[in-house]
Design brief:
This protein is mostly helical. The chain is built from 13 helices and no strands.
């Protein structure tokens, strides 16, 4: 049996990491752990010119030079552009677009103002024609009826003008709402690339909300009486004051997200309840007035008066006004509702025919006589008027909910 080459076996065993099968172990004289001598050191490899220990030649840029002033300017410009994109993305995450036209981009605002101009022109033309018709009708009436009619038209016009001016004054005095998205705040905190902006943008948004809390009128007796007229009872005002004190305490909340959640659920929820009650208050009145109004002029005037009054109350409840695009959409819908209210005669005739046919068939089944036709026509007319008034109520409620969505400091999505 041949004697194994111990030196080669040791070296190969070191290279492989485990003893090679079928070979004898190294003798004691060559194993340091057993007190023997260590194996002889292997010489360092000799590298040829141009080679490295990584097995590839060194790579040096062909055009290596110092940065010039132009290069530094370009790099600084690229950094500023990237920072601007990051800030725009962060603002897009935080800012909410309650008008519903954000998907149109920069087309949204021009389209909203075009809608406003179109609806204002349509409603103005309709009101002008109806007023001329009413004046011609009054001219054929007795003198006492003319005075009463002229006085009623002047009173109605004055009420509409007062409500519109009141809303305009509030808009000039109040601060524009910059609605905050709670989901966007949470999403911004998750973005690794935008994490450097998360703290700054969150602090800025929280500062704006704290300013809103300090400016909200809850301190003087006059402000409290005004809020009580808007549906915020004494108990609700006490809760608002308590929540405001919690929110203005700098050490109360651990994160901005918790702070905004408390604001939405504790402070804004009270305002939402009062705003909803105010919308229903004006909707009930427009239902009654437009149901008993004698002509289209009164329908249109009453709709304008109650709508402007409702919007003014909502602005006072939230102590904010809507943005430009939201305001354009709001006013466009105001004039559109007023135009539809003036067209109530056509809807009334259609509803009256349907009610008349329904009652006529019902009376025929019961077997009542000719007098039932008169009763059916009367009930049909009353039902038609109530139906048109209810349609105006529904339109006003929808408009009020849209306005509430525009005025909330924190979105509810």
């Amino acid at each position: 049996m041949p004697t194994p080459n111990t030196t080669n076996d040791w070296d190969e065993g070191v290279r492989i990491g485990v003893p090679t099968a079928g070979r004898a172990a190294a003798p004691v004289a060559s194993r340091p752990e057993l007190g023997g001598l260590p194996p002889p050191a292997r010489p360092d490899p000799e590298l040829r010119e141009g080679e490295t220990e990584l097995g590839r030649p060194p790579q040096v840029p062909s055009g290596l030079a110092l940065l010039s002033d132009e290069d530094r300017t370009r790099l600084r410009q690229l950094e500023e552009e990237q920072a601007a994109r990051d800030i725009a993305e962060a603002e897009l995450l935080l800012a909410s677009d309650p008008s519903g036209l954000g998907w149109l981009g920069w087309f949204g605002s021009p389209l909203a103002f075009a809608f406003l101009v179109g609806m204002a022109g349509l409603a103005g033309l309709f009101v002008f024609n109806q007023v001329l018709s009413a004046l011609n009708t009054l001219a054929a009436q007795p003198q006492w009826a003319q005075y009463a009619g002229y006085g009623g038209l002047i009173l109605l016009g004055g009420c509409v003008l007062y409500a519109a001016l009141r809303l305009a004054v509030l808009y000039a005095r109040l601060r524009r709402n910059r609605q905050l998205r709670l989901k966007g705040l949470a999403e911004l905190a998750k973005r690794t690339r935008l994490r450097w902006l998360a703290a700054a943008m969150s602090a800025e948004a929280k500062g704006q909300m704290e300013r809103y809390l300090r400016e909200y009128p809850l301190d003087s007796e006059k402000d409290r009486r005004a809020l009580a007229k808007l549906g915020l009872t004494d108990d609700a005002q006490v809760r608002l004051v308590r929540v405001r004190e919690e929110l203005l305490d700098p050490g109360r909340f651990a994160s901005t997200e918790q702070w905004v959640t408390r604001f939405r659920d504790g402070f804004q929820a009270e305002l939402d309840a009062a705003a909803d009650a105010r919308v229903r208050y004006w909707a009930s009145r427009i239902w009654v007035i437009t149901a008993v109004a004698p002509n289209a002029v009164v329908d249109t005037g009453a709709t304008l008066f109650y709508t402007f009054s409702m919007l003014a109350d909502l602005c006072r409840v939230y102590n904010l006004r809507a943005g430009r695009t939201g305001t354009a959409v709001l006013l466009g819908r105001v004039f559109f509702n007023a135009y539809l209210a003036g067209q109530g005669t056509e809807w009334e005739k259609l509803a009256e025919d349907q009610y008349d046919q329904l009652f006529h068939e019902a009376m025929g089944v019961v077997g009542l006589g000719v007098g039932s036709n008169v009763v059916g026509k009367l009930l049909g007319k009353v039902g038609a008027r109530a139906t048109t008034g209810y349609l105006n109520r529904v339109l006003l409620i929808r408009l009020g909910r849209y306005a509430t969505r525009l005025l909330r400091p924190v979105s509810r999505d």
